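does this look right to u?? iron/sulfur cluster version
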Amino acid sequence: MSQPAYMTQPLSETFERYALGLARRESLSAEAHAEMAKRRKARFLRLLEAHGIKGWPERGTLYTRELSKGCKPCLEGWASHLSVTTLCNRDCFFCFNPKPRKDVLSVHGREADSLEEAILSLKNLGVKSVGIGGGEPLLFPKRVFEILAALKKNFGPELWIDLYTNADRLTLPILKELKAAGVSGLRIDLAARAYDAAPVELAREVFSDVEIEMPAIPEDKKSVRGLMHHLDDLGVKQLILHELFASAANMDSLKKRGYQASSSGSPDFRLTWSPVAKSEETVFGHLLYALIHKFKMSVYYCSCRTQDWIAENALKNARASA
Ligand code: SF4
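got this back:
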């Protein structure tokens, strides 16, 4: 069989594919008062360190208590994302799925003609954890269960499987079926549903591992602070906050909302998506809040620099095993 493309293509092209095919088009306007923003972030970092933050500040990867089970292999480059479809019942302004949406199966942004081909790609990547997502995967529950059966058959019980969902289609029977079919943890995007945590309560009835994964939207700071207390009370294990980023798919809606490009993007940054101003600072504030309030829930920051690091590790792994 010929080599998968990620092992042979030039690095920049491969990084674009690792970035879910988020082709560069144009960027947001430069951040105003960039020097002040840098000073504020440096001050935040010093405070976070004084309060015991863990992780790798130089890579923009920080956490308050522990890493999620799905994130550990991801950081080492041993994880992948299987998208059931890019169709969705929502239309979030920050969504990075290319438009028009397509009802196609893909692995790490590469379309797969069949489930067998998708499984082969995952095997070639040597994955230890997989995220099943979309779009909204639960628009097609039958497909999700077929994928779960194939993953279990080919990778056995060791594979960690997270299901990414906006939770609109979660019901108690579906949750029980997902658990029985081998889903290890749920990752719910509450930013997609205006921070309504009702499905989290339902999910906790079935899953011990319920995690919230969403972008850090600067203007939603207050809503998220209130939500953090509620999630901690519900026994949520992880709040995973992503740096908001601009890609070809969401550029227009970000511009309409007046966002600017962050000046903190690393000069040797290779991904084709770029960080949005004030999102990182918003996360730093949430991390500090979690440390001060001693939440049992771990809060984790996954930045664009983190994603760059992950892609580099994944490529190293792929090339080492080629
Ligand atoms: S719920 Fe998720 S997939 Fe659907 S539009 Fe929002 S971000 Fe995109």
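The domain at 5-320 is CATH 3.20.20.70 (TIM Barrel). idk if thats expected tbh
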